[in-house]
Design goal:
By secondary structure, the protein is an alpha/beta fold. The chain contains eight helices and five strands; from the N terminus they run αβαββαβαβαααα. It has a five-stranded parallel sheet with strand order 2-3-4-1-5, with helices on one face.
Length: about 250
């Protein structure tokens, strides 16, 4: 017996993308945007260094990618940094998840090298650098001197606005009730919403059916968070705020 080709599992992997068009400005990230937009080439950052910090999914990685693309900065991933070979001789450097650099001595050398080369440096982490659990006194001193800007958890209105725009970009008709359910069940990040919309679009095209709650539950099972309270009978979605983009 052959499997129905429409029922075959598609080999999706949840990979984040960082398109500037998908970044929605809101109160939770307003201060970070002010710092990045007021000095796009980092010329006015204290000592040429700035750190963005906040919980997973708040948008700090997204902002680092946008800033690096627009400014021409070299972008490194903290967990992948094992030496200083990719640190540029001059210009701009962004290090995402800097608090995940595995070697304190290496991180200290990176900061010292950036200073010696006159690099403008943008970092990110879950907490402010002054709170990173490091043992080296010199490293602790340098981290405390870095200006840090917090990005808070995304607001419901921000996530609702982004979901609506992602659906509109693909010309997908999804009821407010299903949108409300998606916002309750998916991780609170732009990457998760984007991945969900891509899956729903592909499955709807493949099956020739509308995007319903049942379809979404099946296609997004591995992305969904723990079962929340039921959506209100009206299925209302928070209204979209006025917003801009970096």
């Amino acid at each position: 017996m052959q499997n129905d080709p429409l029922q075959l599992p598609l080999p999706f992997r949840h990979q984040p993308h960082f398109d500037a068009r998908d970044f929605v400005a809101a109160e939770s990230n307003r201060e970070a945007l002010v710092w990045l937009e007021a000095a796009p080439m980092a010329a006015r950052w204290p000592e040429g260094r700035l750190a963005l910090f906040g919980p997973a999914g708040c948008g700090k990685s997204h902002l680092l990618h946008i800033w690096a693309e627009r400014s021409g900065a070299v972008l490194l991933s903290g967990p992948a940094v094992t030496d200083l070979a990719d640190v540029p001789p001059d210009g701009l450097l962004a290090v995402d998840d800097t608090d995940a650099v595995g070697d304190e001595t290496l991180l200290l050398h990176l900061l010292n090298t950036a200073r010696d080369r006159g690099l403008r440096l943008l970092l990110s982490g879950r907490a402010a650098p002054s709170r990173w659990p490091v043992g080296l006194p010199d490293l602790s001193s340098r981290l405390r001197a870095i200006t840090a800007v917090e990005i808070r958890e995304p607001e419901d209105e921000l996530l609702a606005a982004l979901l609506m725009r992602l659906l509109a970009d693909r010309q997908l008709a999804v009821t407010e009730a299903v949108q409300a359910w998606l916002l309750l069940r998916l991780p609170r990040s732009a990457a998760a919403l984007r991945e969900a919309v891509v899956r729903l679009d592909r499955e709807s095209l493949a099956s020739g059916t509308a995007i319903t709650r049942a379809l979404a539950a099946r296609v997004l099972e591995d992305l969904a968070v723990a079962e929340p309270d039921e959506v209100s009978p009206t299925g209302s979605v928070p209204s979209s705020p006025g917003h801009g983009f970096l």
